Amino acid sequence: MIFVDACFRKPTPYTPVWMMRQAGRYLPEYMAVRQKAGDFLTLCKNPEMAAKVTLQPVDIIGVDAAILFSDILVIPLEMGMDLKFEKGEGPVFSDPIRTTDDLKRLQPDAHERLTYVYDTIRLVRERLANDKALIGFTGAPWTLITYMIEGRGTKTYNIVKKLIYTQPDLVHALLREVTETVKLYLEKQIEAGVNAVQIFDSWAGALEKPVYFEFSWAYMKEIAAYIKGKYPHIPVIMFPKGIGAYLDDIDGEFDVFGVDWGTPMALAKEKLGERYVLQGNMEPCRLYSKEATKTCVESLHAIMRGDGHIFNLGHGILPDVPVENAKYFVNLVHEVTRK
Ligand code: CP3
Predict the structure, then answer these.
(1) Which one of 56, 72, 238 would you pick to mutate in the ligand 1 pocket, going by the greatest count of ligand atoms within 8 A of its CB?
(2) β-bridge partners, 17
(3) Rounded mean pLDDT of 242-248?
């Protein structure tokens, strides 16, 4: 698999490419399945439909890897929390965790109840071409607990940060519990057939440096080391968004570092390029223009030269991007990087 080879810095005929959030609303074919499912969580919980949308970007856009269609928030959902996706607002938990007593509500063995995810993986792996990779994923414990504590998306993170600075032990207890679940969840995804795993730390950039390393990166490293210890042949991709200023202190046992669009690729290469393969990092809004896409693909290739690089966006693709432009991006990467 070209994607897996690239994760291990083995030679490939061209630089592989996929896009975060590639299975989603910019695809009319996704919207059709989504409509049939009724709501988003029903779609996540239906392996037949989830497998179908997982495969769409491979068939329609030509990416080198599929990413499992699911959501990071199925973990807190299966820990017993009440999750709803509300129109215009996104995810909402009606019963956020704020106290030590609230912690007791969380149920163990969430990984045992996430069977619909493993069923989706098995279906996709059966149907996906042998040379295409299937990427499994999880949210990082820090990003997950921001939703579990705040109860919804936030601009200020004031509720979770207040707990960090006033009751750090409570926050660490919650992080510990989520971390144990995440380890077992990724392990089960691997046993079901994923070929790589990515840890999304979408809200990494909300924390100041020492607090980030204590409350997020330490747990991500622990998860990565656990997976690498048991499954050395499975690439682990870390994607902490918004910490371009902290790269000097990044370390740990993993294979690929996902570079967000706010971090210059040349800087990431200088700081991390010898130790880790780099994934990224086109600004997703460049996809609105073929010219802007071309400029970026060429400049990223000039920096990386196909050495230790996986092409991707620097964050998720947006719902109003023309499908044609997404195809153009993927074809162009293959063309420009072909050896
Ligand atoms: O990348 C993929 O194609 C795989 C599927 C995937 C989804 N969510 C599908 C989804 C993945 C990897 C995620 C991860 C996820 N979910 C993250 C981290 C990734 C990132 O972008 O940093 C986060 C923070 C979430 C939580 C979440 N889920 C939010 C905030 C929302 C609302 C977003 C919005 O724009 O409405 C979701 C819903 C969601 N997850 C959608 C999709 C395709 C849209 C749901 C719909 O069809 O209405």
Answers:
(1) 72
(2) 311
(3) 98
Task: State the first-to-last Cα distance of the chain, in angstroms, to the nearest integer.
Answer: 17
Mean pLDDT of 323-338: 98
| Catalytic (active site) residue 25 | yes
What is the position in ligand 1's atom list of the atom closest to the CA of 90? 32
Task: Looking at the CA of residue 44, tell me the nearest atom of ligand 1.
Answer: 9
Task: Kindly state the tokens that stand for 162.
Answer: 């207040």
Residue 80, by phi and psi: left (phi above 0), alpha (psi -120 to 50) or beta? left
pLDDT digits (tens, 9 = 90+) for 150-198: 999 999 999 999 999 999 999 999 999 999 999 999 999 999 999 999 9
Give 317 Cα–ligand 1 centroid separation in angstroms.
10
Cβ of residue 75 lying under 6 Å from some atom of ligand 1: no
* Residue 124 C-alpha from the chain's centroid: 18
pLDDT, residue 20, reads 98
Looking at residue 164, its amino acid is I
Residue 21 CA to ligand 1 center (angstroms) comes to 7
**3-class secondary-structure state, position 207:** coil
* Atom 13, ligand 1: residue with shortest CA distance: 71
Q: pTM, whole model, 2 decimals?
A: 0.97
* Domain ranges within the chain, ordered by starting residue: 2-337
Is the domain spanning 2-337 CATH 3.40.190.10? The answer is no
Beta pairing, strands 65-67 & 133-139:
parallel
